[in-house]
Amino acid sequence: MKYIEKLRNSGLRPTKQRLQICEVLFNSEKTFHFTINDLDQKIKKQISDKISLATIYNTVHAFEKKGYLKQIPINSNQIYFDTNISDHHHFYDLKEEKLIDLENADVGPINILKKINGKKIKSVEVLVKLED
Length: 132
Prior knowledge:
Blueprint: H1 4-9, H2 16-26, E1 33-34, H3 36-46, H4 53-66, E2 70-75, E3 78-82, E4 89-93, E5 98-102, E6 127-130
Parallel strand pairs: 4-6
Antiparallel strand pairs: 1-3, 2-3, 4-5
Helix pairs in contact: 2-3, 3-4
């Protein structure tokens, strides 16, 4: 199967449940944003087998560590993941609790003036919070 290598590279055995998680995450033309609970609900709709929340959590975090998913912290207790791992910006709708891609072309130049000794900027990603 096409996801076995991705699982092994993430340090995970390619079990049936993990392969099913891969299908939901990566077998889509469009990238998407999700929380662990969102993904759990999506899996329940698409897959008849029961997959524990712990398996979903561990798989998602292993994929994020390997760079297959991007983590987007909204606040101290709300974390989204993105299947689009490129550097890009986001809107976050506070009422709908929804993350929306914001194209790089839709954001003007960003000039970071502060420097941190011994560190270089890897990327700059803007999170714009929206309210009604």
